[in-house]
Amino acid sequence: MTSEAAFIAALRAIATAPGARGLHDDAAVLAIGGAQLVLTMDAIVEGVHFLPGDPPDSVAWKLVATNVSDLAAKGAVPRGCLLAYPLADEDWNAAFLTGLAAACDAFAIPLLGGDTVRPPEASARSFALVALGEGVAGVTVPARSGAQPGDDLWLSASVGDAGLGLALLQGKGTADPSHTEALVERYRRPSPNPALGVALAPLVHAMMDVSDGVLIDTARMAQASGARAVIELDRLPLSRAFVATLGDELEHRLFAAQAGDDYCLLFAAPPSATGLISLSQTHGATLHRIGRIESGIGLALTHAGTPVPLPERLGFQH
Amino acid sequence: MTSEAAFIAALRAIATAPGARGLHDDAAVLAIGGAQLVLTMDAIVEGVHFLPGDPPDSVAWKLVATNVSDLAAKGAVPRGCLLAYPLADEDWNAAFLTGLAAACDAFAIPLLGGDTVRPPEASARSFALVALGEGVAGVTVPARSGAQPGDDLWLSASVGDAGLGLALLQGKGTADPSHTEALVERYRRPSPNPALGVALAPLVHAMMDVSDGVLIDTARMAQASGARAVIELDRLPLSRAFVATLGDELEHRLFAAQAGDDYCLLFAAPPSATGLISLSQTHGATLHRIGRIESGIGLALTHAGTPVPLPERLGFQH
After folding, report:
1. Best interface-test mutation with A: which of B29, B37, B136 has the largest number of A CBs within 10 A?
2. Which value does ipTM take for this structure?
3. Which of A1, A21, A111 to mutate to test the interface with B (most CBs of B within 10 A)?
4. Cα–Cα separations (whole angstroms), residue A311 to A248, A257, B26, B115
5. Which of A14, A94, B113, B178 could form a disulfide with A28 if both were Cys (CB 3.0 to 4.6 A apart)?
């Protein structure tokens, strides 16, 4: 067990309130004043979650977007956020604030407060944000753990773009400039869709966001649900920029499924949830059926009907 | 203007939602369902808010307690908290968790979630906690800004102990071992009283917690309220350990009023609020009238009826 896994296991012994959901979900859920308050906190660290060269406004955007992505995954309407900010030099601060304002505005999430600290010299930049949302009235806030055998498995957007954008930033390969821009943008400025999450919440059995990669996040959903997930890799949605840069063979599909930072929705819904396709149209997102939930345990992959062995590394573990 | 002041001024231009209270208060207030949700986030940094030698369990306690102190100041019942935790070595993690569990238990605040990060080497330890509470139904959540001329100014506990405890830890002076223990304990393990805050909320015009020192925090209340505060330093409550170690002359009282980390309640209430004294008895806290609110601006000090000039440094500014 890694020290992080050991730490989280020990935290679980403390976080025994039902709203903590055993720390197994994207967010906590607290009943307050007749509402379902959804709470998430994501911290990001320079060199781990973003690159030292990333523009400060995109760091702020990413911090807000990763938290909003958790709210979207719980079908929660964003209600507010709080920021822990270590002061930097004035230019960095100003650029960060520009991105913060833009993201709060774009996701309609008011900044309510937070804390600033003066970090000691030579510390890596590290930011934490808490986002609050309100779950859909009368609908159980979707958990990771509700997937049932017979469900279809869906994705709300193409995957792999952010991972490929990161690889390009790290000098691993090249792409056509217009594709590079689109792919780097997906890495730096995730665009979660909370309105889509709200609309999906009543239709799904389980929902979570894809942050560490489709394979590892699907495996987590399967494990939390006590079920087996099968991903048909040939159904994985890939963007035009991704295919033009890398290709769409099995190896490229595996790359896309192992890459992190997608921040789209992964959900399991019964075949009877016929409203899904019309939802796609309303919310400007194309929903893609990528597989199914079966009885059993674990994760299985196929490509054009043929079983594919699981890669050793399923995704980003941090 | 310091870079922090400039940053917070720029943040205010973003945090325009009413619930943010202009970032001038201890906490944000969000109407959700039929409840008043009170939200606060405090970050603490090694070398700034705690000493590198402080026991990890006391660091966790202090992190929870400083946030609970903000809830107490808004008369909010603690409902939950979320933690941003940079992983340390296993012994440190384990000791931190012991203190976290003890504090969550003592303040009846469930741990609901959070995030762990793996900090880069050589970073100072830095933790952030968000605490949520529920305001008293039917009572406006007390602000810093409501003090009115004619109000009395009150403190809910003795001050200066934590500051003296810190000084002793830093090798500035010595004390009798039993006093040292009590004073260091006040520095390392603040003991806010949210039940007292809840009971006070309907009776006060303004309330906040004392975190940076009585003088600077009273000046902040006066400024937010557009009024003048007068503190009678001879009325400042000092503990037996404080007086035995330092004394109770004017200079010692000024030290106590400039020291931070008291985490007790400062409030302004009209003389008609006659329930205050009986509250003291119910909640095991002695309330001390330390001055009054007048029309005007700023802060004034007296000692035994004689005006005392304001010291250059009012408290802890960070």
Report:
1. B37
2. 0.90
3. A111
4. 17, 10, 50, 27
5. B113
